[in-house]
Amino acid sequence: MTAADPVLLVDVRGVTKTYALPRERLFERPPMIRAVADVSLAVRAGRSLGLVGGSGSGKSTLARLVMALERPTCGSVLFRGHDLNALAPAPLRRLRRHFQMVFQDPFGSLDPRYRIGRIVAEPLDALEPTTPEARRARVVESLEAVGLKSTDLAKYPHEFSGGQRQRIAIARALITRPELIVADEPVSALDVSVRAQVLNLMRDLAAGFGVTYLLISHDLAVVEYVCDDVAVMYGGRIVESGTTEAIFADPRHDYTRTLLAAVPKVPAIAG
Amino acid sequence: MQGDTFLARGLRNRSFVAGGLLTLALVAVALLSLAWTPHDPLRISIPTRFAPPSATHWLGTDQFGRDVLSYIMVGAQTSLTVGIVSVVIGMTFGVTLGLCASAARGAVEEAIMRAADFIFAFPAILLAIMLVATLGPGAVNAIVAIGIFSIPEFARLTRGAANAIWVREFILAARAAGKGDARITIEHVLPNIASVIIVQVTIRFALAILAEAALSYLGIGSQPPTPSWGRMLAEAQTRIFQNAWLAVFPGIAIALSVLGLNLLGDGLRDITDPRLARKR
């Protein structure tokens, strides 16, 4: 059972998610699309999992299902043995401090009317309200962990670049000291030069804060850099999974080979 | 443009400046009339009735010899009161319903919006007349009627603006942070649509002043002796060819107030939405 496995963070069991498309005819059932089809996967503490797939493969939907932002059509999502969709709102909220999310678009995921201090403190305010002094200390600590200064607290999101904004989003996810961070394409909206900085930061945080990632990406190079395990999604299903080395060394599925072929080969630089 | 303060952008916008000045003038006149008017607006003096504009009576006198300027000044109080109260009624209920519809989605949203459409299907002034006819004439009933019929307008506008906010990623981030729908509505949705609502407030305010004038003109708004611009028009129309100023001055007062508020609304919309301003 799950309770016996102390390192099992996320346990996705046979999850399917279908969406209704807009009706084509008034008196017919609206057409359905199956974004995720009977997917099972597990994320263990300390082993970050990369979820790779092309656009429309259902990987973002799966991320939202793991974050309990959507309800699965069938199947269940367990976090540390708790079925997220069977929990009442209050216990689910208490559980949320253990898993947080970083979104793709660093321009859309920060409320333009909030100052940075309030943005970063948002999960804290919602999940574990504390004294103003303790709150400020946590916010500063979180900001400094991602390489921003405490003087940035009073600024607005539009005063920052894309890479800095994504750092702010990571600081927000980090503030409750979660065990799991679900990162949905965290660097795909960033310049290539900034990407490496953010990925390095994510790797450092995994070591420093004991965070495990569920990293969603269409880019295998990104996943290889941060993750220990890889699962490849195609057409709503997981077609291949294994350790990062194994997948890169010996891809079994055609789609994985196609993805691998798309990764630019860079000769190793010293160090 | 982004670094500019709100005020700096406002002062460069001609509609905003002109509308703001006219609206300020309206408020100033209403406030001034509480303390001082050239003559007692309600004093009847038959010997000096129908006096044309002169040094003593700047805008002349009406059929009871009341000073038209004083009467118009006090009438500004009526217009402002009707505007403020009816807009507050319409905004409070309309914005609340719109936010609920947007947060609830599904059947609740449909129910609220179809109910709003139902009220929309009737001309507003006709409905106001119907309501006042049922409740009985009077300033309070007119205010309530005007307020009720601005509810669907606010509800529809709020729902539309709020729906555009709900699909943004920071709402998803707030949900992931553990906030519920009610808290997201108050802390994220409302602040982001506030500017749209403020613009609508100024425009509805102008419509309320116009509606009050229309209802009073028809004799079912505020009742004598409460001064009202609409009723001044109604009383003046039989003598429009003999004593034109009796109709012209309250007419100008209504026109300037409505113009001022509309310009203010236009200006505010341009200022709060820089994309729209640049297109002109």
Helix and strand layout, with pairings?
The complex is a heterodimer of chains A (271) and B (280).
Chain A: E1 8-20, E2 32-44, E3 49-52, H1 59-66, E4 74-79, E5 82-83, H2 89-96, E6 99-102, H3 116-127, H4 132-145, H5 162-174, E7 180-184, H6 192-209, E8 212-217, H7 220-226, E9 229-234, E10 237-243, H8 244-249, H9 254-261
Helix pairs in contact in A: 3-4, 3-5, 4-5, 5-6
Chain B: H1 6-12, H2 14-35, H3 68-104, H4 106-120, H5 124-135, H6 139-148, H7 151-166, H8 169-176, H9 181-217, H10 229-236, H11 245-272, H12 274-279
Provide keyphrases for this structure.
heterodimer; A: 271 residues; alpha/beta; 6-stranded mixed beta sheet; 4-stranded antiparallel beta sheet; globular; B: 280 residues; mainly alpha; MetI-like fold; 74% helix
Overview of the structural elements:
The complex is a heterodimer of chains A (271) and B (280). Chain A is built from nine helices and ten strands. By secondary structure, chain A is α/β, with parallel strands linked by helices. In chain A, strands 6-7-8-3-9-10 form a six-stranded mixed beta sheet, with helices on both faces. In chain A, a hairpin with a 2-residue loop joins β9 (229-234) and β10. Chain B has 280 residues and is mainly α. Chain B has one domain: MetI-like fold (Orthogonal Bundle), CATH 1.10.3720.10. The two termini of chain B are 15 Å apart. Classes of the chains: A alpha/beta (271), B mainly alpha (280).
